[in-house]
Amino acid sequence: MEAKPKREWCWIMKPQSYEMTCDLCGGSNLEWSEFDHMIWCYDCQKDTPGKGGLFDGPIPLHLCLELGFSFDRINIATGKRLYLHEDNDHCEWKEEPANNALAADPKPRRSVEIVPATEG
Ligand SMILES: [Zn+2]
After folding, report:
1. How many Å lie between the centroid of ligand 1 and the Cα of residue 43?
2. Ligand 1 centre and the CA of 35: distance in Å?
3. CA separation (Å) from 23 to 39, 52, 53, 68, 106?
4. Under a CB-based contact definition with an 8 Å cutoff, are residues 23 and 48 in contact?
5. Res. 110 pLDDT band, cuts 50 70 90
6. pLDDT higher for 109 or 11?
7. Domains of the chain, residue spans
8. Rounded to the nearest whole angstrom, what is the distance from the C-alpha of residue 40 to the centroid of ligand 1?
9. What pLDDT score does 113 carry?
10. Ligand 1 geometric centre to CA of 79 (Å)
């Protein structure tokens, strides 16, 4: 067996949340694999590259953030969240949240209706 490089981080959302599917069964019962550039399919019980999803092409970052996707990462060794910092098309991930609004937790845009409590 060839040695596969282990992941040092994974994305904060699950693979299927980025619209990835299993390239073997087409399913979306997925988790990030312990190996780099791989996903784990619960249905196939296999590490596989997966396919599709946002990472297939150039990511329209701002649009995706608007839509509620997060591109923060988890440092697997420490379990800490690494926040996306974007600087002139250059992305870095740091333990501190960035000051700009883009790196803040993306909030779902769907508005929640707040019904005022009726008194009496
Ligand atoms: Zn599968």
Report:
1. 5
2. 16
3. 10, 8, 11, 25, 29
4. yes
5. very low
6. 11
7. 9-103
8. 8
9. 54
10. 26
